[in-house]
Amino acid sequence: MKAIGLLEYLPIENENSLIDIELPRPIPKGRDLLVKIHAISVNPVDTKVRAPKDKKEEEPKILGWDASGVVVEVGEDCTLFQPGDEVFYAGSITRPGTYSEYHLVDEKIVGTKPKNLTHAQSAAVPLTAITAWEGMFERLAIDFNNKEKNRSKNILIIGGAGGVGSIAIQLAKWAGLNVITTASRNETKDWVKSLGADYVINHHKAFKEQLSQIEIAEVDYILCLNNTDQHWNGMAEVIKPQGGICSIVENEKPLALGLLKSKSATFVWEFMFTRPMYYTEDMINQHLLLNQVSELLEQNTIKTTLNETLSPIHAANIRKAHAMIETGSTIGKIVLETF
To answer: Domain Enoyl reductase (ER) spans what residues (predicted)?
Structure first.
């Protein structure tokens, strides 16, 4: 089967940073599905794993953690899917990725593809939707069923125009929250407003002053999707007493957690690979939440965040997508379709 992998960790400008290869078609066992990939999307995690480092692989390493496709074979213990089913998912960072014509994935982290979307539109969603869903509704314990209560609550989403922010804005609005998000360029401001953001502030300026201008003194929740170190003091300043902050971006310097002490505020990490990485007892929750997201997409309650499509799926186009993401200025999601 066709695949795209790496043997060395090189700058994306180097043609050997990602190369076209041929691999044997894998065989599903246990609860694994064998999926024929129709579309994939590229995420910042792809570029971080591929980033230059002094390391070489003996066997090609396959990246990629977003896909939409069709089940062609199932392991002997599978109960959720059968051959012919259309699926979408984000996979596991500890297993070979989706930059391949066929891919093995545990069915417990797979959702049913939205019937009203193409494979390209569907591939844009899983990783970011899982991240946003877990970050808000599990880590921050926001009850999406209690929309009446949530109408009096504010959430600040830092980095609203990126992949996770684009779906988080929509899910937060569906849950009934008042959404404040950050964007700094005219095109990103227009994008987040089109997704339902109530207010837009600039992440290059102090949060507290900007919030006061829209008559908001503090926020109940913060979802940090960009540079935890840079925004830490600002987040601590505007979080409400007993509020919650969730970040998906690892810190490079020690965080001054003491800033949250007098407010009894919560800080929590979200890493959407935790469940498949550790085979947690509640791993199937990713299957369940993806099915809920699929229903919301089919109902047009939320929409795909696909913003650019490349074709076909080969090393040159994936290198192009990596280069685009590494600029730090992409809006929504970049998807590749068709091997």
So the answer is: 5-336
The three-state secondary structure class of 260 is helix
Residues 249 and 311 occupy one common structural domain = no
- CATH value at residue 142: 3.40.50.720
| Helix (H) / strand (E) containing 208 | helix 207-213
pTM of the model: 0.97
CA dihedral 102, 103, 108, 111 (to 10 degrees): -50
Number of domains, the chain: 2
Q: Which residue has the tokens 């959430």?
A: 155
- Calpha distance 125→39 (Å, rounded): 11
**Strand extents, DSSP E, the chain:** 2-8, 19-22, 32-42, 56-62, 67-74, 86-89, 102-106, 110-112, 154-158, 178-182, 199-201, 219-224, 239-247, 266-269, 306-310, 333-337
> What are the tens digits of pLDDT across the range 115-150?
999 999 999 999 999 999 999 999 999 999 999 999
Cα-to-chain-centroid distance, residue 258: 29
